[in-house]
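New to this. Look over this protein:
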Amino acid sequence: MMQRFGRISGPRSPSIHLGASCAQMVSTCLTAEDSSADAAGQTQQILDVIDAHLVAAGSSREKLMMVQVWLADMADFPAFRDVWNSWVLADHPPALSVVQAAASTRDTLVEIRAYAAP
């Protein structure tokens, strides 16, 4: 059975769920709520919400399998990396992919999708 969480809908945004979990996997994809923050601040906001989603789905950072990151500008990679390296568990790092991609809004500097085992 699929459990969905973090629904967003409205006239200026698509109707989506920010995450889902089932017996085999937890998935969540997020941007920062406070888009006035710099790349490090946006990264930390997103990782904090990912932590909450993992716990809500009965998972944890130890069970992360893969994380995909989209940066609006690769010049922000060092800021992302510093926050990431402080957050990720050194003995349980997931596969990580970081690419540059245009965001749907100009103030979105970071978007992160994480996949974990439940």
